[in-house]
User: What shape does this take?
Amino acid sequence: NISREMLQHDRQLQLIASRLEKKIKSELFAMQQNDREKYDKFYEQFGTQLKYGAYAEFGKNKELLQDLLMFDTSEGEKKTTLAEYVGRMKEGQEVIYYASGGDRARLDALPQAEQVRDKGYEMLYLTADVDEFCIQVLREYQGKRFQNVSDGELDLTTDEEKEQAKEQQETHKDLLDLMKEALDGKVSAVKISSHLKTHPVCLTTEGGFSIEMERVLRSMPGAEADAYRASRVLEINANHPIFEKLAALAEDDRDKLAEYTKLLYDQALLIEGLPVEDPVAFSEAMCKLMSE
Assistant: This one.
């Protein structure tokens, strides 16, 4: 009569389990390298389980599984391995860029990705709920750390651009403070954006906990509405025509500035695939603006 606990701690069984894991990984990796079409079909069925396996137990098996993982990418329709991505990295590129969200079409149009795309960098597209949690556990691959394009710490600007953004931040400090006050705690800051090129506004985050991770955790059964919340930052494009309007309203009509700020925040939520907090108020504000 042998108990399950005795078997679990038996050294020989642990050795057998370890060898089986390595053998299975070896066979799957060989399939990936030598018969990609077959591996693609396998991954379509079991890729999610591999990602959960890499994420489980605080990444206990990430070293074992990371070479088997594949993700969508901004370059082409086929999934890519992390090794293939690193092999295509541009000279001097030190990080693996990724964007996370509901589907490829939305990520293609993500305002936060404009700067990355303009620099010619490829991005991993994380479209499954588990993807970003898996990436967070991996932390890096072949010495290249992962970087969310929606992270406020993304830095692709030149020294000249940084100095210009700093000057604009100081020049328009009163405007930005008024906008933050109008949002009444919904964002941790309102900043001049270094991410945006053509879009007027976007949301970024501070602290490594992204809006997409917030969405996934909030969608789980039993999750409380305010249990998980990313530290949101509203970024404004100082080169967009709307910014001139905001600056003028800061001087002439602060009530209307508050209304515009809330509209821009709701717009940023919709871009992120999140619902606006008060659809009725959003609709009324839009109608009021259109009738002016």
Remarks:
- The radius of gyration is 23 Å.
- The mean pLDDT is 89.
- The longest strand covers residues 95-100.
